[in-house]
Amino acid sequence: MDISFLGGPRPQRGVGVVAPFDFALDRELWRWVPDEVSLHLTRTPYVPVEVSLDLARLVSEHETLSDGVRTLTAIAPEVVAYACTSGSFVGGIAGERAMCEAMTQAGAIPSVTTSGALLEALTELGVRRVALVTPYTVSVTRALEEYVAEAGVLVTGCAFMGLTRHIWKVPYRDVADMARRAVRGATDALFISCTNLPTYDVIPQLEAELRIPVLSANQVTMWAALRRLGTRAVGPYQALIDPAARIDPAAGSGPVLPGALPEALPNVPGEEQQQEGPT
User: Fold this and answer.
1) Which of 44, 91, 135, 258 is least enclosed by beta carbons within 10 angstroms?
2) What are the φ and ψ backbone dihedral angles of 160, each rounded to 5 degrees?
3) How far is it, in rounded angstroms, from Cα 26 to Cα 17?
4) In contact, 77 and 40? CB cutoff 8 Å
5) Distance (Å, rounded) from C-alpha 172 to C-alpha 167?
6) What is the pTM of this model?
7) What angle do CA 225, 230, 231 make, to 5 degrees?
8) Strand, coil or helix: what is 79?
9) pLDDT tens digits, one per residue of 29-79
10) Upper half-sphere CA count for residue 22 (Cβ side, 13 Å)
11) What are the pLDDT digits (tens) for 80-134?
């Protein structure tokens, strides 16, 4: 059999991804990637700590990031992405920028982080008011609120799950329920945090229901990384990826939905409280 006519394989462009040791959604990342791009993933070293601010700090140490980037240099990716939301917002905007600098110096290539990509996406869509959904405890969720506020974006509502492990097991229906609870009053967009929280298939359904752009951690990470390559992420009817799917925030947000709406996160000095979430 003559297979000489097949040629190929097609030339590939590489995106390096440094993810926390417990990241479980490699396949979800691939769903945003066009055929001519390959993902090359590496993970941070295991530490016996549950999802928390302490874990976020451990998996985002500059030495850890630099080691991760250096493991990817042999395959010469054109950009490297740090795929962890809490790890990239825990140090605020200055901390996120320092992380990018450390990764770039380690690999001599452009670098992005999930939280940096979030702010880039909010700017791209002209978002000044955002609702948040997180799987985190209250302390980690507050740190995200502070990060977004530092960028000058108003948090209009927030719902959190209080989870410290097995976040990748949360079903879409629970993500959608939390989204409905977070969106209250006028808001320009919804952000679903955590790269370990499945979101790909729920984004277009939520955008159609809520009538606002819906962003997720994995989505903005891949969008920003591929943007550095001069190419586009792929995905059905997602406002960030497809300009034709965008709703002008100036035209008003979707309706306030019925049902129980969460109060603002409680101010409890010296003690962390958690809201029950899915198991």
Assistant:
1) 258
2) -135, 160
3) 10
4) yes
5) 12
6) 0.87
7) 75
8) strand
9) 999 999 999 999 999 999 999 999 999 999 999 999 999 999 999 999 999
10) 20
11) 999 999 999 999 999 999 999 999 999 999 999 999 999 999 999 999 999 999 9
